[in-house]
Structure formats: C-alpha cells, structure tokens
Amino acid sequence: MSIIDKALEGNRNYAKNYNPTLGKRPAPKVAVVTCMDPRLSDLSGILGLPQADIDVIRTGGPAVTEDVLGELIVSTRVLGTTEILLLNHTGCGFTTFTDDELNSKLAASTGDASPAPMRFFSYSDPEQNTQEQIKKVRSHPWIAKDVPVRGFIFDVETGLLREVQPIARVTAA
User: Fewer CB in a 10 Å sphere around the end CB: N or C, the chain?
Assistant: First the structure.
C-alpha cells in the first residue's frame, strides 16, 4: 500500500470522529511562516497555542516570497490575525546547497536545463535569513505597521525557540 493510500485510509478513520464545528470560518490570531520541514509540524505544541489560533504558512527555507506575502496580507487583512511570527530552524536542508549548485545538479541529472535558473531560496545563516525575512514582511506597504513581526529560530536539538532581533534601522541625524 502506498503512503497516499495509507493517508486515505487514515482519513476515513479521522472522518468517523470529525467535529463539524471545525468547518466554521477560521479566526486565527497569529500567522506563522515556517519551513516545510516535518520537524516543525507540531506548531501547536512548539508554540503552546491552540491549533485554531495559528494560521500556518509553510514554505522552504522559510522564504518570504511574493506568494507568502500575499498569504500574510490575506491573513492580516481578511482573516484578522494580529501578529506575524517567522519561524526558522537549525539544521535546515536549505543550508546544504546553493541555488546555483542545485540548478546545476538538477540540469545534469535530468538532462534538461530549461527551468534554470530556478530560485530555491537557499541560505547559509539562519539568523541572517530570519532578519532578511522580517525586513521583507515589515517593508510591505499592505502589512499594517501596527502588526508585530517577530522572528525566531527553533533549535531542533533542544526544542527551544530563540528570538532573532531585526536588523537595526539606520536613521539620519
């Protein structure tokens, strides 16, 4: 049986005890942009928040792309979330390659370079990456300035979060 077939079987079991009140319109309180890494799947446990309070946006890296920005705008302007949490982590697979390396490897292994150069949003330093993502979110004009945007790194060895301070703005004297 394939993994997808097992998932379908699991869904049939899940549906037997499904609570239809979960089908109501969501009203999350915080938007969380996090990596697609399965070690970050238990956000309710990691953050100590009810699942219904978390609007989860998952992306590799976690990169704040144009799509992610659009989802954050909908989350804050339509769904009513009041805070944005960017959650990076140690040991991320996106630190194990560069975009150029992966483009070359895929072109060579498939014999087709036509998609290159693809942007995979690889990075080397989780702290710097988190700071850059905070800056991207904070600089978007449709994300209200009164919505807090904070970044964290989840340590996959300890389970602890460490806050990343945004890049200090330089102001003219």
Answer: C
- Rounded to an integer, what distance in angstroms lies between the CA atom of residue 87 and that of residue 173? 34
Peptide bond into 62 cis (omega under 30): yes
Mean pLDDT by 10 residues, the chain (173 residues): 96 92 84 96 95 94 95 96 97 92 94 92 93 96 97 97 84 57
Packed helices 66-74 and 126-139: angle between N→C axes, nearest 10 degrees: 60
Residue 163, strand partner residues: 152
* First-last CA distance in the chain: 67
**Which tokens sit at 86?**
């960017």
In contact, 8 and 15? CB cutoff 8 Å: no
Interatomic CA distance for residues 42 and 40, integer angstroms: 6
